[in-house]
Amino acid sequence: MNRAAQLWSKNEIDCIRERAIHMEKNGTVDDQFLDWIRDRGLFKMFVPEQLGGRMADLPEALRIFEESAWIDGSFGWTVTIGAGGGFFVPFMEPGVCQSLFSEPAAVIAGSGYPSGRATAVEGGYRVSGTWKYCSGARHATMFTANALIEGASDDAESADASPVMRAFTFMPDQVQIESDWDAFGLKATDSHTIRVEQAFVPAERTFSLVEPYGAYQHPTYRYPFPAFAAATFAAVALGIGRHFLDEAERMAAGSRDAWHAVKPERVAFTEQLIAEGRCAYEEAARKFMFHVDMSWRELKELGTVTEESEREVSLQARAAAQSIRAAVDSIFPYMGMGAIMEHSMLNHIWRDLHTACQHTSLVSFQ
């Protein structure tokens, strides 16, 4: 991918990477690095400037996500998930947006899965539910989650009508965080389960992704959400994969003499695999960003993204993730016993990549 404008100094990159294994053990990104993210406005990348946001075009944001994930997987995932919540701004009541997003530290954690139940009451709703995998739970200033409204349906005349789903915004004091994120990768993302019990949510703090208010206008807000989500996660996977290739090159260079003494052919064989992996990364990133850029031009010129372009972006996002994962897996077995140790950087990166690629947006079911 073409590199985003350099956001991080070499000293900052080295600092984050030096702390990566410690952050993994602690299960969270260091507060110092969260402050760096906030200071650069990355959690507010899709928040309008009038709310103190950065309001980036999607292609620019994807390059930043890739760059952040290249530094460290959990760090990049934290940036990406935190930024992604800004996509909800145009669908939220403008006065609520002003209240919730104007503070510099504003960031959403939550879930799109409708595993909650809501009951209409005077002035709003009572909501109960449990939502898994809410990345950034410990530093979120607000939480959003989907719930089904009891007694409501999209067609009151039909017995087969679907229940109405709506998104609800909770304040931190309404949410219980269950520290249950025990995946083998992306460990420092605070991707825990959240629970609410009979939390009152005013009607104005609810929203639907098919009902924009129109107060905030930007092309990113008109981008189809499934393709938006797939593209952001693909950028993370590509960044982690690029970091793996860099680390594999470093390890191979440091082991060259030892490998040559025992098995001379191993050096050229492994270096060739890494070179092929680099080519796979470049090709996957090129094709992915080509279709993203094309869809972005289409959006700006026509005011919409065609269904064909939307499908192609989602397809290329999945293909990019699968390609870099396959390239990494072709190299990993040849990196020696050190690579299987959890404390090694290469192992850390490998696990992060496989965890990121497990997201349903990057898995093809066809």
Please explain how this structure is put together.
The chain is an alpha+beta fold and 366 residues long. It has three domains: 10-89, Butyryl-Coa Dehydrogenase, subunit A, domain 1 (Orthogonal Bundle), CATH 1.10.540.10; 108-207, Butyryl-CoA Dehydrogenase, subunit A, domain 2 (Beta Barrel); 223-362, Butyryl-CoA Dehydrogenase, subunit A, domain 3 (Up-down Bundle), CATH 1.20.140. Helix content is 47%, strand content 17%. It has a seven-stranded mixed β-sheet. Strand 1 and strand 2 (124-134) form a beta hairpin. Helix 7 (225-262) runs antiparallel to helix 10 (345-356) and helix 8 packs antiparallel against helix 9 (307-331). The protein is globular and about 80 Å long. The mean pLDDT is 94.
> Can you tell me the residue ranges where pLDDT is under 50 for at least 5 consecutive residues?
none
| Integer-rounded radius of gyration | 22 Å
- Count the helices. How many? 10
CATH topology of the largest domain: Butyryl-CoA Dehydrogenase, subunit A, domain 3
CATH class label of the largest domain: Mainly Alpha
Work out the number of β strands. Answer: 7
Cα separation of the termini: 27 Å
Please state roughly what percent of the residues sit in beta strands, choosing from under 5%, 5-15%, 15-25%, 25-35%, 35-45% or over 45%. Answer: 15-25%
CATH architecture of the largest domain: Up-down Bundle
How much is the average pLDDT?
Answer: 94
Number of domains: 3
Q: Can you give the helix content as a percent range?
A: 40-55%
Shape: globular
The succession of helices and strands, N to C, reads: HHHHHHEEEEEEEHHHH
Major sheet description: 7 strands, mixed
Which secondary-structure class do the elements indicate? Answer: alpha+beta
Give the neighbour order of strands across the main sheet.
5-6-2-1-3-4-7
By CATH, the superfamily of the largest domain comes out as Butyryl-CoA Dehydrogenase, subunit A, domain 3
